[in-house]
Specification:
Elements lengths: L15 E5 L15 H6 L1 H7 L3 E4 L27 H13 L3 E6 L9 H9 L11 E2 L22 E3 L5 E3 L14 H16 L4 E4 L43 H12 L7 E4 L5 H7 L11 H5 L4 H18 L4 E3 L8 H4 L8 H6 L9 H17 L3 E5 L20 H5 L43 H4 L6 H15 L6 E2 L7 E5 L5 E5 L5 E2 L5 E4 L8 E2 L3 E5 L1
Parallel strand pairs: 1-2, 1-10, 2-3, 3-7, 7-8, 9-10
Antiparallel strand pairs: 4-6, 5-6, 11-12, 12-13, 13-17, 14-16, 15-17
Length: 548
């Protein structure tokens, strides 16, 4: 069994980390917005679930231009979410319950309300304050054109002009100006931020847009032109490490510097990179002398197809092994359609078009989606490495695809001219009870409306109910902790078409039927199944079983 004690420096290698999106987790003061006291009051849910750590999405001061990822103070707490004392109380309670605490770090950009950016606007062109960001004169006879053709991930130009005529870079929302990581003041400030949270007992960091910090700012700036797409998840069609602003080789010097800070603590602080890069490049971020781990988005994006999943799993394990890291697995997060809906959409479905249709073109079969999601979860939890869960998936929550456009908060909706609906559908606040104005999320209405169907998914409805998705997660995590041994798997030869079959050790194996037809259940004692198994022993479609 893996040792996840506070003294074990390798606790993260096969941990289960639960992502808390604080504004949608629990509202303690009744203002409709989730807060840190709400998180603290509900931490027992995580402990009972059986996870090893919580990852807290941004709780910093922010105007919420991008759901909290527009940070005005990297060492503060948004007053609407609480205080530093509230954070300390939450961390202390988490540690008392045996939970590690991981926080989001947002180093690529700040909020436009950050004191640095406000100082840069006042200081004017050529100032040291402006050099902390990326300001440039425009092109054209009067500087009226953006400096380059670089595009924002959220749509449109990545440049915005200020009144004195210069333009600043924002690879995301205009309210999120990019920092200049060639500036020594920027580097020193983030070193201070890492120490600030580590000294408060934070056990690790999730690094947002880890592949974006280093940029080629040599003059003249290069247009991207026809060399490749510029979206955050695009694979640039340029030599690896040489794109003007994504995944440049120079970024790794920054993380080697951070690792020196992490290793001054006992146990060393951990980190995981959010890097939308090919797997061979992802391994670089996960090296022991850098962040140590990186998110595996190939797995999240894989279809419900046995051959594709087997290829992704094998490649991911090889990539992690080459880096000296452990693999990571994730099915849902705050940026993607929840997997209870996504996995049942027909192959080739345009997810944005589906969201724009309110989830009606096509209609996602809720029952089939939940069945497939449960099977996918047991498969993921059987794999060697760390599993990252997103709040509410343990309840089987589907995507809320039919949010009316007038309630949308994601800046993607406005910035794309109402072409992309955005990510609000996976951020709808959790249901804790079957009744109440926000199903127990808080004493009043929630900041995003919850559908009536959420009542049936509530924690109080599922807790202690045999066969519920919540109880499946609890049982799986309890059993997983007992079974953990080693970081390898062995594929079983001769598995039927559409079936994933592997042994973790000589004592247990995982079998998943991704096909549309029942298959014979291999011999062995059934430890856990994602859905009830028929008699005699067959393995139905969209079902995973753990066998002794």
């Amino acid at each position: 069994m893996a040792d996840l004690s506070s003294r074990n420096p390798d606790w993260w290698r096969q941990a289960v980390i639960y992502q808390v999106y604080p504004r949608s987790f629990a509202d303690a003061d009744g203002d409709g917005l989730g807060d840190l006291r709400g998180v603290t009051e509900r931490l027992n849910h995580l402990a009972t679930l059986g996870v090893d750590a919580l990852w807290l999405s941004p709780f910093y001061p922010s105007e919420l231009a991008d759901g909290g990822y527009d940070v005005a103070d990297h060492r503060g707490v948004d007053p609407r979410l609480g205080t530093l004392d509230d954070f300390d109380a939450m961390a202390a309670e988490a540690h008392r319950l045996g939970l590690k605490v991981v926080v989001d770090l947002v180093p690529n950009h700040t909020s436009h309300q950050h004191p640095w950016f406000q100082e840069a606007l006042r200081a004017g062109p050529g100032s040291a304050a402006r050099d902390r960001y990326v300001f440039r004169p425009g092109r054209g006879a009067h500087g009226e054109l953006p400096p380059t053709d670089w595009q924002s991930v959220f749509g449109g130009s990545a440049w915005r002009r200020v009144p004195d005529g210069e333009w600043y870079l924002h690879l995301f929302a205009p309210e999120q100006p990019d920092l200049n990581w060639d500036d020594d003041v920027v580097r020193a400030d983030f070193r201070a931020t890492l120490r600030f949270w580590s000294d408060r007992g934070v056990d690790g960091f999730r690094v947002d847009v880890a592949h974006g910090l280093a940029k080629d700012l040599t003059e003249p700036l290069r247009d991207v032109g026809s060399v490749g797409a510029t979206g955050e998840d695009a694979l640039p069609l340029v030599p690896p490490g040489s794109h003007p602003y994504w995944d440049r080789d120079e970024v790794h010097e920054i993380y080697r510097d951070w690792r020196k800070i992490f290793d001054t603590y006992s146990p060393p602080r951990t980190a995981v990179a959010e890097a939308w890069v090919p797997d061979t490049r992802r391994a670089l971020y996960a090296r022991p002398d850098e962040l140590g781990q990186a998110f595996n988005f190939e797995y999240l994006q894989a279809r419900w197809d046995a051959e594709e999943l087997r290829e992704v799993i094998t490649g991911s394990l090889e990539t992690a092994r080459a880096a000296g890291a452990s693999a990571t697995w994730v099915l849902s997060n705050h940026d993607v359609v929840r997997h209870a809906s996504r996995l049942v959409l027909p192959a080739g479905t345009d997810e944005n078009a589906w969201l724009l249709s309110g989830g009606r073109a096509p209609v996602a079969d809720v029952e089939a989606g939940l069945r497939r999601a449960r099977a996918a979860t047991l498969l993921m939890l059987a794999l060697p490495g760390s599993s990252y869960l997103y709040q509410g998936e343990e309840l089987g929550l589907p995507e809320v695809a039919d949010l009316p456009t007038e309630v949308l908060q994601d800046p993607i909706w406005e910035q794309t001219g109402h072409v992309r609906k955005g990510r609000d559908g996976c951020r709808v606040p959790l249901p804790w009870t079957a009744t109440g104005p926000s199903y127990g999320f808080g004493s009043g209405a929630a900041w995003l409306p919850q559908p009536e169907a959420f009542a049936a998914y509530a924690v109080e409805v599922q807790a202690g109910t045999e066969g519920s998705t919540l109880e499946l997660y609890r049982t799986a995590l309890r059993l997983r902790r007992k079974l953990l041994e080693g970081e390898t798997l062995t594929w079983t030869p001769g598995a039927p078409a559409g079936v994933l079959d592997f042994a973790r050790t000589e004592t247990w194996r995982c079998v998943t039927n991704c096909s549309a037809h029942p298959v014979a259940l291999p011999p062995g004692e059934v430890l856990l199944a994602s859905t009830p198994l028929p008699e005699p022993g067959g393995l139905p479609p969209d079902t995973t079983v753990w066998l002794a």
